[in-house]
Each structure stands twice: as C-alpha cells, then as structure tokens.
Design a protein that fits this description.
Elements: H1 7-32, H2 48-53, H3 61-72
C-alpha cells in the first residue's frame, strides 16, 4: 500500500494553526479595547462592578449572558 505524501495532513495542520492564531489575536485585541459605559445591546449603564471586572465589556452581564446562550444553542 502506498500512502503517498502527508501534504494534505500538513496543509490541514497549517490551516488549523493559522485559524487558532487568528482567533487568539482577535481575543487579545478585544480585551485590549476600552469598554463602554452603556450596554451596546440594551443601552442601560454597565454597573461599575462589571466594568472593574471586565474593563473591555461592551454589554451588561444580562445581555452578554443572553448573547452567549444564544450562540451556544444554535
């Protein structure tokens, strides 16, 4: 049996690595950005405790939780 080259496996591994690196870079950029005083979803002020715990937050905890649950259930 001739298994040939592992080029397709190497290419898949390279793509996976590039996608992972891109996702890490996006996460680092998101955390580095300044958060919002008001939730971008509901418009209400983001509580000071949330802003202290997650200075990059752009949504209140209720809206962020809803968004994450919606993404998880798709």
């Amino acid at each position: 049996m001739n298994f040939g080259s592992n080029a397709s496996l190497d290419l898949a591994a390279l793509r996976e690595s590039q996608e992972r690196d891109a996702m890490i870079a996006q996460a680092i950029a998101a955390v580095a950005t300044e958060g919002a005083a008001n939730c971008t979803s509901c418009g209400f002020p983001i509580p000071e405790e949330r802003r202290a715990a997650a200075p990059f937050a752009r949504r209140c905890i209720e809206c962020q939780t809803f968004l994450e649950q919606e993404k998880f259930h798709r």
